[in-house]
Amino acid sequence: MDQASGGDDPNKPSKKKSSEDEGKNKKLRDRITSFRKTGNKKEKPLIQHPTDPLSYQVELPVPQPLFDDRSMNLSEKEIIDLLEKMMEDMNLNEERKAPLRGKDLSTKREMVVQYISATAKSGGLRNSKHECTLSSQEYVHELRSGIAEEKMLNCLESLRVSLTSNPVSWVNNFGHEGLGLLLDALEKLLDKKQQENIDKRNQHKLIQCLKAFMNNKYGLQRILGDERSLLLLARAIDPKQTSMMTETVKILSAFCIIGEENILDKILAAMTIAAERNNKERFASIVEGLENHEAQQLQVACMQLINALVTSPDDLDFRIHLRNEFLRCGLKKILPELKETEELDIQLKVFNENKEEDSIELSHRLDDIRVYHLLSNMVKDTGSEAYFLSVLQHLLLIRNDYYIRPQYYKVIEECVSQVVLHRNGMDPDFGYSKRLDVDFTHLIDQCVDKAKVEESEQKAAEYSKKFDEEFSARQEAQAESQKQERESKSWRGRSSGSSTTTSSPTSTWWLSPPHLLLPPLSLGTLAFHHHLHHLLLLAEDPRLLHHPLGAGPQPPPPFFGGAGGPPPPPLPVIKLPYGLEPKKTYRPETVMKRVNWTKIVPQEMAENCFWIKVKEEKFENPDLFAQLSLCFSSQSKVLKCLFETLRLSESLIQNLIKNLPEQKELNALAELKGEYEELVESEQFGIVMSSVKLLRPRLNGILFKLTFEEQVNNIRPDIMNVTFACEEVKKSESLCKLLELVLLVGNYMNAGSRNAQTFGFNISFLCKLRDTKSISQNTTLLHFLAEKCEESHQEILRFPDELEHVESASRVPAEILNSSLATMERHIQRLENDIKNFPKTDDQQDKFVEKMMISFFMHSREQYEKLSTMHKNMQKLYESIGSYLAFDPHSVSVEDFFGELANFRILFMEAVKENHKKREMEEKIKRAKLAKEKAEREKQERQQKKKQLIDMNKEGDETGVMDSLMEALQSGAAFRDRRKRTPRNGKSLKNTVFMSHSYFLLFLSALPV
Hints:
The protein is mainly alpha-helical. The protein is about 60% helix and about 0% strand. It starts with 17 loop residues before the first helix and ends with a helix.
């Protein structure tokens, strides 16, 4: 730094010539601005910055003597304060302020005097703060007042000059209200449908004002903090206005390389929304700007924005996606046609180099394998092959239309990219509308898990069904073999012994008790028994369904004693008042529902009463009565059930038995057979049912027949489950090894105690393994054993599959099983006794004994003997398990033993799953830690890169932020300095194979159909 005048005495008056004064003034200015010079850099055109004194030195007045009265009147404190204000206006950081603070007082005085002169000329005198604020507020007032277009143009031009020439403090004062007014004005002009030439010029001036406003750190932060700014700038990309579009595209390019978080996503979102307003693709305007060969600066700016957008993402997939989107918009066709210029060549070189590096990185990711071969090998002989083939076949079905086919492929490509890139959130664009925010990952994982579960369940069900059938057949065959063996022994014993005489069982006829007086019977009970005789016959022979039921029960047989005595004497006739005649008596064919009205007797009516004069007979009509009988018959529901039911149901039989009167009551009803015609239908039904012999035994037999198969189906699975479980426990090798491992661990842990050197342990201890916690309290002994089994003893992990039936066996109550078999035996024995004691009958329709003896009794006896044999074998097998595992099977029930095993099986499987989750969580934490460290490193690199970009400007001057960023873009130094990677095995990029139409058809034909 030049220190030539550093030793002059400030108090001595200057007597040098004018030329010497000018030379010293120049040296002084050089001394003031020397900290921004870069001596070892290539000489570049001077960029004027808002607070650089050189930027407005041409406007300085004729330099005054260095040591005039003003410099003499400033105290040391005032000089220091003014120096701090000067450095603040210049937006210098502490590192740049330190050398200036270290200057001697004379140098500081000279810099302050020069600063005062410059700011006074620009109208922003720092020692006149009111004048500065007033000037910025005048622009705010002009913008707010809605001035005319011509006047606005002049105002915006003046504002641009002021934003460029005034210090940061002036920009700060204007920005509080002025930025919003500038954005409002720009939005109003952009929304205008028919834009005049003056409107376009005003738009351009507004963009220039915004650029000047953000050419410092404060203004840039304000612009990025306003949500409308990016959208309005994106809307201002208009290829018809080349100058404005050039400025706008450069600004957006600078935004891309700032390094702010999510800035790229915000810019892409703004461009997407702006394109949707014009019904265009979001990059169409940028590509259209490249086609304007007359505007070379616009072409350079568009290529800068393309490079800034494509090279900014760190993710390879997203970079390729953005580049392909530009190529689809027409960039591929335009690139070869661009005229080569020095500035444009730099941008094209950046684009091609990054494209080549991405291709090399992609080829490394694919390991230089042809993409079709890769996909073919990935899906071959897997469940994905059919779906992949279907996708390719559907692609062939796309309509062969010059305009339609590209649109189909465009939609398909966008959908696929949404699916495969959604995990990283790298694709914010789908159909150029709002982002498709669907969690495809969860959906795919759920589909995979569901498919696995369905396949496993289907196989398990098939194997289980097949195994159960074979095992059940084996058990039944074993029971049949034992039965045949017993019968063989019995015949051999009979043949060797003396012959025995058999006597046929004597049949005893049921004798009715003496006739009793008729006890009181409710009408509801008698109505419930209506048609019982017909139902009993129907249960024995369904052919009786063809007999008509609507005619009511058959007339009863002739009763004993003839007609039953003389009829009773007639009742006396009551005379009705007012000449009324008795009402007609109606006899419906069916019992009707009753109308619940309050009956008024004639004696309560007055002579002029309405009811005296009514003649309802005039409405009498056979059709009316028929419809009433059809709609309001009380027997309709009963008859409907009768016709819809082929046989008596279990519940109906149970209700009949429950509500059936005792036999003595039925016998008492039989005494009223002489009055059959005078009785109501329910009482007639009771008289008919009294003629059915052994009614209750019949019903009990029918009920047992209806419930027998259900009882068998309830008992057999329980027996089979326990038998299965017993055999699985005895045959499971993995369970044996697990018990050995537990015994080893237990003896080691119990060393020195009374439980040491144990030969065996009770099975109930297995569930207690979970209660033994580790020292750190974060695992249990069960989890420890499960982990060791996974590490060294994989075969033990199969024991839950080998003990498949222990859970179902744990739900089998042994006492209830024994009781069910005993109950079945009692019912069979009672049915046998009833059949033996059943009296003979001449009724051809009564086939109760025949059907019960032939079709059911023998079958039920055979089934019971099989179940009994299987149950005995089950008990023997369970007793052998007790001997095998050293426990008393009589004191430990089946439920308790298999319940312990089932609980341990579940706990062991849960421990294995929890160990897996624990390892996955540890891996996840480890990956997250590595990812966090990587993200921190990348963040630091981005911050360092951003700092370097800003420091690329002249030393210490941070006010020309946008100028420095645009200079970095223009030179190509702002783009990603990505690490060059050489392809493996010495292969170059040209060996990387891309898709071709002919190869696509060849690959498709090679796939299996």
